[in-house]
Every structure is written in structure tokens, then in C-alpha cells.
TrEMBL record:
Record keywords, A-Z: NAD, Oxidoreductase
Protein name: 3-hydroxybutyryl-CoA dehydrogenase
Site residues, Important for catalytic activity: H140
Entries under Gene3D superfamilies matching the protein: N-(1-d-carboxylethyl)-l-norvaline Dehydrogenase, domain 2, NAD(P)-binding Rossmann-like Domain
Chain ranges of the 3-hydroxyacyl-CoA dehydrogenase C-terminal domain: 186-281
Family to which the UniProt record says this protein belongs: Belongs to the 3-hydroxyacyl-CoA dehydrogenase family.
Amino acid sequence: MRQQIGVVGAGTMGLGVTHCLAEAGFPVVVVDPVPEALGTAPVRLAEELRRIRLVRRDPAAAPVSTVTGRVRWTGRFEDLAGTGFVLECAPERIPLKEAVFAELDRCCPAGAVLASVTSAIPIDRLAACTRRPAGVVGLHFMNPAPMKETVELVRGPRTGPDTLRAAGDLLAALGKTGIVVADGPGFALNRVLMPAINEAAAVVGAGTADAATVDRLFQQCLGHQLGPLRTADLIGLDTVADTLGVLAECTGEPRFTPDERLLELIAAGHLGRKTGRGFHHWR
């Protein structure tokens, strides 16, 4: 029987990671202290499983009820006491994630691996909230996690070799490949991607080109699959803005300040694909 895995956070990324784990046969404990998120999570997970299966059409896949039956939902961090590997998927806010890591350090066994699915926060900053920095690692999943085969595997300056190996082994068990990078704000991927999205939003705001044109140029001229603004919609514009905010705070560079057009869409509730509208209309 596979080891029990913990997931913190029942948002979009938390459900995506839970989907990957449960589909691969792992028993999963999902912790989210927000009752509203926890209450709707089982239904959202089942819907996501059905939607992905329409795309994949895998006749060997276990029934949805079997996969969802591997997941236990709770609002208590103490329910992770028997878990040897935890993936933190809380919203991309530094104080929140620091508080989560302090709680995980308190509640999880001494040898447990604590992995953050952060998109930008330096891993060593989160490791500093624990008494086990050698057991902390970054696993930057892309969205939607069940459809992406590669994960940015972040080695903090104090991440131990056994921890890095355990993280790589877990990814392999999920059928994913980990590409190892060193620690730093935004790591490799988002240090490059987020400014590109921000500048694309500025181009739209300036009236130089609309969102469809910007993405078409990236697709047809550069071979990008989606383009920067469809990618932003897929990630979630709120997550993009939070990630840019982390980069701005951690680097002190004003170029990471979220663009006005991006903030306007968020203020209007247009967060991308998950709400049906962002830079593009999805429904």
C-alpha cells in the first residue's frame, strides 16, 4: 500500500495535486481550515476528475468514486500526525505560507518531508519557519496539475539529499518528471514568465494589441502553445498578481509591480478560466 500523503489547501492547485495523488493510488489527507473551501472540495474534485477523463479517455482508469474514496478532508493540521510527506498548496501569500509551515513543523513527524507548491516564495524562507530545514523542498506544479507532466523541483540551500530524492521519487510515482533548480524568488520559470505576462497586460492596456492578438503573435511567431495571456488565465489572474507581489517584495524590483489592467480585471472578479473570463472569455 502506498504511503499516506498530506495536502494543505483545497483551492485550485490543492485539488489538482490531490487529484494527481489519489489517481496514482495514494491515500490523501487534505487540510483546509476554511470551512467554505473544505465544504465544496469533494464535489469540485469529482467534477475535475470527470472533466479530465473526458479529455484523456483512459479505459483503465479507476472509477471516480474509487479515486475520491482515497481522500479524507479535514480542517485540522493535527490530522497530519501520521503523514510522512506533505505538499503545501496555500494561497501565494508569504505570511500565510510561513504560518502554515510553522504548523506543519509542529504537527508532522520529525522525518516528514515538507514540500511547498509555491510559485515564487524562496524555499529557504519557508524552511526557516521550521526546525527541519533539511526536510523542506519546493515542488512547483503547473496548472492544471493533472495535465502537466513536468514539475519545477526546487532545492533550497539547506534541502537535504534524502529530501530531494524523496520528492523526485514521489513525482516519478505520479508519472511526472522533476527538473531541479536552485532556490531564489520565482525560481527559474516564474522569474521569466511573470514579467512577460505583466508586460503583455501592459501592451493590452496601452491599446497596442488586444489579448487575442498578443497570444496569436506568441503562438505563430514563437511557437508558444497558448501565449502569455491565455497562460495567465489558466493560472488564475489572482495567483499571477500574488506571485508578482512576492517577486516585488523579495527582489525590490519595481518591474514586478502588477500592471493596472491585470488589477482591474481582478477587481471586477474576472480571474481567468476558473471564473469564465479573464483576458479572454472561456464560456
